Amino acid sequence: MLDLGCGEGWLARALAGHAIHVLGIDVVPALIHAAQCAGGGDFRVASYEDIAAGKYRFAIDAVVCKFSLLGKESVDGLCRAMPSLLKPRGSLMGQTLHPVAAGDDLPYEDGWRQGSWHGCGPDFTEPAPWYFRTLQSWQRLFADSGLRLLEMREPQHPVTRIPASIIFIAAKSA
Ligand SMILES: C[S@@+](CC[C@H](N)C(=O)[O-])C[C@H]1O[C@@H](n2cnc3c(N)ncnc32)[C@H](O)[C@@H]1O
């Protein structure tokens, strides 16, 4: 499995116990260093832009992007490169902010939004902006990238029942 935007690599360590080998990639060297120290998979510093530029060759069973599809051009380019990373029957699993629940009261249209560390404590400062996409826009991006959307899941907050995130599962178009 390829974990794009792996951060400190917790997913690789969680999956190692299930005999799933993970290669984690992130653009922040300090995060990759922390991941390498903690172990549980292979970790490399690289950017989505590097991947979109074809600097790496992969043939992967599954690509996962967990809360790491946050930019505009970087994510557009990464999605377009996605079919070239996957084996013929490989799949992409992307989890991100649910556009309906995370939209605040702003118009329901694509655009950059202010980030927030609400609920994360005082150690978290200077939230990064993120690029909001409507459901229609996600769907179009996958289709334009040669990916077939197989499934969308909307895990709910157990108390409020508001969608806590959205999960896209996609495969290479035939
Ligand atoms: C919110 S964190 C999520 C980290 C991890 N997936 C998790 O679930 O804890 C987003 C990660 O995506 C990485 N990222 C964002 N844009 C990137 C890019 N253009 N190239 C590589 N990594 C990127 C960031 O460095 C960050 O570690």
Question: Which stretches of 5+ consecutive residues score pLDDT under 50?
Answer: none
Name given to the CATH homologous superfamily of the domain at 47-98 and 134-172: Vaccinia Virus protein VP39
H/E element sequence: EHEHEHEHEEEHEE
> How are strands sequenced across the largest beta sheet?
3-2-1-4-5-9-8
Which fold does the CATH topology of the domain at 47-98 and 134-172 refer to?
Answer: Rossmann fold
The radius of gyration is 16 Å
How would you state the average pLDDT, rounded? 95
Which shape, going by the Cα principal axes? globular
Q: Count every helix, treating DSSP H or I runs of 4 or more residues as helices.
A: 5
Largest sheet: 7 strands, mixed
Please provide a brief summary of the model:
With 174 residues, the protein is α/β, with parallel strands linked by helices. The chain has helices at 10-16, 29-38, 48-52, 73-85, 135-144; strands spanning 2-4, 23-26, 42-45, 60-66, 86-96, 111-113, 130-132, 147-153, 166-172. The structure holds S-adenosylmethionine.
Structural features, described:
This protein has a domain at 47-98 and 134-172: Rossmann fold (3-Layer(aba) Sandwich). It has five helices and nine strands, in the order E-H-E-H-E-H-E-H-E-E-E-H-E-E. It has helices at 10-16, 29-38, 48-52, 73-85, 135-144, and strands at residues 2-4, 23-26, 42-45, 60-66, 86-96, 111-113, 130-132, 147-153, 166-172. The strands form two sheets. It has a seven-stranded mixed beta sheet with strand order 3-2-1-4-5-9-8, sandwiched between helices. Strands 6-7 form a two-stranded antiparallel ribbon. Helix 4 (73-85) links the parallel strand 4 (60-66) and strand 5 (86-96). The longest helix has 13 residues, at 73-85. It binds S-adenosylmethionine. Residues 5-7, 26-28, 31, 47-49, 66-68, 70-71, 74 line the site of S-adenosylmethionine.
